[in-house]
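Consider this one:
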Amino acid sequence: MKILIITSRVPLPAESGYTIAVNNFVKGLYEANIDYTLLSINTSKHFVDTTKFDKIEYLKNRFFSAYIKTNINLCSAFFNLFSNKSYNIQRFISKQYILTITEILKNNQFDIIQIEGLYASTAINTIKKLSKAKIVFRAHNVEYLIWERMANSQTNIIKKYYFKLLADRLKKYEKDFILNKTDLLITFSINDLNEFINWGYENSFYINPIGIETKLYKTEKEKSKNLTLFYIASFDWMPNTEGLLWFAENVWENIQKKYPNLHFIVGGRYMNKEINDLKNKGIDILGEVKDAIQFITQNDIMIVPLLAGSGIRVKILEAMAAGKIVISTSIGAEGIQYSNLKNIIIADTPDEFLNAINKIIENNELFNLISSNAEKLIYEQYSNQKVINKLIEKYKEVVK
């Protein structure tokens, strides 16, 4: 079985949810001795120097990339308003990408071509012309839903209208691709799968969560004397920024009043002025974290105040793998097979966040229970090689 994997970002460094999901998947295929080739769009926004990738064993002689300038251009965004095409998708179309994928397909025959997320799908018509491989789509999110939720949370009328327009056009593209061009649909969660089935998807599907390399997160689980709240995210993704600002505005002040010595530490890339200004509210803003795993393991209670999004939050899985307490909104925890107050705490309002933090600080027994159960959940259901091996069995069914 020979697989071509197409991604909308270079999967190293594996720091964001998308890159961690892709990188762990590729490493899992390598461990399982599967023959694969990886083609990544190397975007201007997340550009990576790939010249040394041939020194990485699981990428050696298997990795190709194509540069695409994906920067938002106000002029092209304006003229796009007068078309019926998705501006989100149009930014990921380029001649170099088409030429690269054409060259790969002319020189290789694949059984499966796996497309990692919607923005990696823009060459699908070329792929269909040049290859008879089964098209596997691994949906990292329901993309239109992210924009629709952001539109619904907007108070600015112009932003609300524009986000809704982006959502509607993205949904049209997403629906056509999934219903008409996908042989096997893989989702990380039942929530996302149900959305696609409601659209009328009738081909093969499989729920296969993101795999976590659990051995990387082994740490002492005893409750610290001086607990810390923490949040780690990539702030170029708008829901991460909006969620943190909401938490700072609506929750943090009341927490400070009750626990004046409690620290809230925020790490992540692409922080804007609004995020950096949260220092004025007594929040510790670290900026980019060199070692995300170390950052997670050395802190105690992860806050996930997401108000929009779809798919599954890898950082929650990482924190749970380390036995950390996660307090998340329902949207933030979507797609994870959690049990509230057993392996996570769900909070959707300022009062619920305050009560959750109070409960976990004051109740040692509950702290230890959730910590232990969170780690157990990840080991049993999200261990990377277990996840990959199950997916390989599904591939074998599809290519029969």
Q: What stands out?
A: The chain has two domains: 2-211+384-398, 214-381. The first helix runs from residue 17 to 31. Residues 9 and 46 are 7 Å apart (CA to CA). The two ends are 10 Å apart (CA to CA).
